[in-house]
Amino acid sequence: MNMTVLDRHEISSVPRSAAQPRWRDGDAPLPSIYLSHGYPGLLDDALWLSELFEWALTMPKPRGVVVVSAHWENAPTSITSPTAHTPLVYDFGGFEQRFYELTYPTPDASTLGARIAAMMPNNESLHIDHNRGLDHGAWVPLRAMYPLADVPALQVSMPTHSPERLMDLGRHLRQLRHEGYLVIGSGFMTHGMPSRQLLLGTTVEPESWSVDFDAWAAQLLADGDVAGLSRFRTDAPGMPHAHPTVEHFTPLFITLGAADNPEGSVKTTVEGYKLGLSKRSFQLA
């Protein structure tokens, strides 16, 4: 049997993940992160797998992970099923059969679900969707970061694309970071369709709309200009090509809202392009 890139990644990463210290009471809060999760082909990309895994190793292994993914737009605000080994959502098409056979049997996340519910404002109930598991915006990057599937994980739906309302939702999740939970906004810094790279499967230079949007976002993040980022629809170069639909950018506002200082120092952890799209990922304290 031929070994895949994912097989080789797990052979090297599993022992290191098993030895990773876990977050304990008294440890510093975990960061708030935004990651570009790509598509299932991320699991065939040795560099990207390594980048995500090495990022995970820079922090203690969390008590649990909360993911707001581009691929679950749902109101009212909901969470995925907290039961152990919840089936995955294979929300993609046209890939090899092996991608639809991958599993990621996470532990029971009921405690995390209860904490998320407690964080919600009094006038907003939290719906539990017992029929929904983790979509690829969650399980693909988590499989790279925590290959043992030993961290409870839940998704929170994205009920709106309003930057202000998403910032507010992030603020309600902020306390979880101080309790050892990792809060992730999962999207893709540029997600334009179609591009020559995506259509042809090539690795030529990214198109200007992707480069220009990425540079704009990087500069505003460095400046702590949350208001400027909120005006991405009208102010960002490369629009609307960089985000014909906005669901892969707006999880960034969850990340900002969940940070102790949304206008604070951003640590960029992943840069570069995949099929012409920006992989930029970052964290804030």
TrEMBL record:
Residues 1-11 have a biased composition (Basic and acidic residues). It comes from the Bacteria. InterPro entries: Extradiol_dOase_DODA, Xdiol_dOase_suB. The keyword GTP-binding does not apply. GO terms for molecular function: dioxygenase activity. Keywords: Dioxygenase, Metal-binding, Oxidoreductase, Zinc. Signal peptide: none annotated. Residues 50-267 form the Extradiol ring-cleavage dioxygenase class III enzyme subunit B domain. It holds the Pfam family LigB. Residues 1-23 are annotated as: Disordered. Gene3D superfamilies: LigB-like (3.40.830.10). Its cofactor is Zn(2+). Belongs to the DODA-type extradiol aromatic ring-opening dioxygenase family. This is Class III extradiol ring-cleavage dioxygenase.
